Amino acid sequence: MIETADLLLENKNLQDQLIQSQSKINYLQFQLDQLKRQVFGVKSERFLSMLNAGQLALPIEEENPSEIEKEETFPVEAHDRKKNKQKKNHPLRKPFPAYLTREVEKIYPQGFDENSPEKPIGEEVTEILEEIPGKFYVRQIIRYKFANKETGGVVIGELPSRVNEKGMFGELLLTRIIIDKYCDHLPGYRQEQRFTRAGIKIPYSTLMDVPRQVGNYMVLLYEELKKQSLVCRYLQIDETPHPVQDRETQGKTHRGYLWVYRSVEQRLVLFEYCPGRGTEWPKEILKNYKGFIQTDGYKVYDYFDRRADITSICCMAHARRYFEKALKDHKELAEYFISKLQAVYTVEREIRDENKSEEEILFLRKEKSLPILNELEKWLKENTNHPPRSPISQAVAYTLSRWKKLTVYIEHPFLEIDNNLVENAIRPTVLGRKNYLFSGSHESAQRAAMFYSFFGSCKMNDVNPQEWLADVLVKLPETKTTELYTLLPNYWKNNK
Is the overall model pTM greater than 0.70, yes or no? Predict the structure, then answer.
């Protein structure tokens, strides 16, 4: 006969197994939901707290449907319709830039022309933007030769400096090809088609050699950008995959990485291609760096915790994402954390929009943000008892273990609350990866990193990358090594 104690023990074991099984099912369901969202769903992290949803409601009075119908069927006089039509307000169109060439087309009323004795009493000007696609021209340089009576030889005028003295492309067209690829993410074969439509046949291999020519020409400027980027007290760091063609294995690519270093104060962004994602890569770049680094908490950055001259901080946006993922399974808890964090971000928005001084930033953060963060820290410590693999447990564990690094920014006005700015700098590389899929070699990947660095820095400084590159290709040969920094986008904007 089975003892009662044995039955109770067996029952307890079965209950424990049921709890573990349910926990595993919930975890697998969570992973499945995240995978579906990644493949099919909307990836926006925008959150509207239900606590504040009522603030969005407008006091609009409901109308009686019968009255609406009566108004719609009531006959309206023609002059009333015309009058109502005239009351519509249309936004004024902004004028086209003054530097654009105007091709004037004059239209006179029937029976009048420019030779009519009557003078016009006014005019209406309509401007329409047009384009002549593929307007190429040939720059023909003629150098005259003269006999030198003093030496008895022949002298000839010198050619201006060029990226490739024997190349078929001028600096303006080289600029266009580079911009098409690294700013507009246009693969080489599409650029080849663009030339073909204009009646110009250029081999694909010639187009693909342009980044190499221009890249080799700008290596010194890239090294200057690297040096200037690391002379600061605050860096934001992230990394993103960058496939590279594997010549040893047909049909496969090597998973390389673009490491990104955003110098907030210098307003420069540095991309560096590395074959892997290990500690050795940022360790080498930052071997002489001293200051703050902000990362997403990836384990390779733990190395810098052991360096006394570097202070490692974390990104609040990454912590928030864990709670955003937990909204479905733990709505009330996740909403509480995100809603509180929204108030903290409101303070940061105020700082950014009103361009506060460092003293004002410190005051606002300690006055408004710090009490909320202290409340959240207490709340996190009180919510550590959830099932280990549940989304809310992962969110709490991730955030609480990094809380000190997440809140360092409160004490330093030049720090940001999150790493979003460096993530924004990465976006163009993702679009490029979708369009031209991979780099043909490790050298090609490093050239891509170079151009992403230049153009990312242009974007940070609100500089037109095409205008910048065209100017730099002309000025670079005549610029002294000690003055190369003047060609970087952050200096060039104010000294062009």
Answer: yes
